[in-house]
């Protein structure tokens, strides 16, 4: 174990709560808490993973600060793999702060954000991808996001990466043998193996990356933009989905002026919805800018919802929007079904497959279920349902996986083109070390600092 100092921090959220926890980790953790805690036994003598009742005292005066329960977890069986003591005191800002203060007076240092988890990594209890997933668990906003992150904390991605690296090392060993003892193996057997194993590895990486888009959506929300002419019901849709009166709805066309943003949750899929100003049909330059703005919003979005007023015939502006949206993931809502239908389905069908068209009356709520079904179908497509699939959700991991994929493609190509085996080996070796960076092999201190500084205090 490293001879680091002993760190302490408040582990629970600040504010009024029933219980608060101060966590201490490091070689002096138990001795330091012993100096300020009086229970039946000295903590130095108690068994690991036991809980003790007693009083916490001010280090300088010996005055009682609070009563509490203390947990002792001895190295290496703890979160950080060091000796860890957790003091559970009363909640509320004053009690927790005073307990932390006395522990700092007794010799601990205030931990930096993420320092407990950083120690768990540096002590080898978890790898970097597991440590990074701890942030995702804390930040998860839906059950599914939480589930995916927790799986990663438990090592799902790490395991995939380790397996891939293992295969690449075996391949490298094979190449080395062929280079060093040419008589031992025929070169083209090795070349074939590079191509075959390389392609299998690329395929595995591809599968992890395929889940990446879903992973990002789970973390950041599906960027959704609502576009359409004035007065068609765009803001009404936003209000319905968010179950708020966030957007102002009136029968005056042009009610929404600025873009509004709202987070909603549809069947466990987080959506960040932008409600845009309606696009008018004029030759006016200012209005043309409106179409341009919508076009930009559509380019940025994961999902575009085009709202039409179904009680009116399709206009040229509607067709423009349908045209732009047809190139992207999109859904068409034909609204105001309660006012009768004047819009031609065949006409919309020229731009959009019928399965993507939903008829609604947002005013009465009719058809919204179908819209939600469609969102769910488009974005989960059964894939998130496979609970054991591994997703890369972290941009750093995704970038590294893309890079490793490229390096492997280069190895395969070099092999196919008949390059010498030592050149092929370089690409394979590169892919192996790129994958290593995902789990924290050979990463620099700067990167670690950057990653762990995103954590909250006490984690
Ligand atoms: N009180 C408390 N609750 C908590 C945490 C904590 O640190 N303290 N956690 C903080 O995130 C989470 C649980 N995560 C944890 C992960 C590993 C170990 C741990 O001690 N692992 C050791 C020993 C396992 C064992 O005894 O079998 C190990 O893996 O070696 C503890 C908590 C959520 N709940
Ligand atoms: N009859 C009927 N009226 C609706 C329906 N949906 C919305 N409306 C009404 O249409 C009017 C315009 O709705 P908004 O949601 O403000 O429309 P918008 O598309 O946001 O309009 P702008 O912000 O002006 O671009 C309001 O009076 C709504 O109550 C519907 O399904 N049927
Ligand atoms: Mg509006």
What are the main properties of this structure?
single chain, 459 residues, alpha/beta, 7-stranded mixed beta sheet, 46% helix, binds ligand FFO, binds guanosine-5'-triphosphate, binds magnesium ion, hydrolase, tRNA processing, metal-binding, GTP-bd, MnmE_helical
Could you characterize what this model shows?
This protein has 459 residues and is of the alpha/beta class. It contains 15 helices and 13 strands. It has helices at 29-36, 93-105, 115-122, 128-139, 143-153, 156-180, 187-220, 234-242, 285-300, 316-325, 345-349, 368-380, 395-416, 421-438, 445-452; strands at 7-10, 19-25, 37-39, 50-57, 64-73, 84-90, 109-110, 222-228, 260-266, 269-275, 303-309, 330-335, 357-359. The strands form 2 sheets. The protein has a 7-stranded mixed beta sheet, covered by helices on one side. Strand 9 (260-266) and strand 10 (269-275) form a beta hairpin. The chain is flat and about 85 Å long. Residues 382-387 have low confidence and may be disordered. The ligand Nc1nc2c(c(=O)[nH]1)N(C=O)[C@@H](CNc1ccc(C(=O)N[C@@H](CCC(=O)O)C(=O)O)cc1)CN2 is lined by residues 73, 76-79, 86, 125. Homodimer. Heterotetramer of two MnmE and two MnmG subunits.
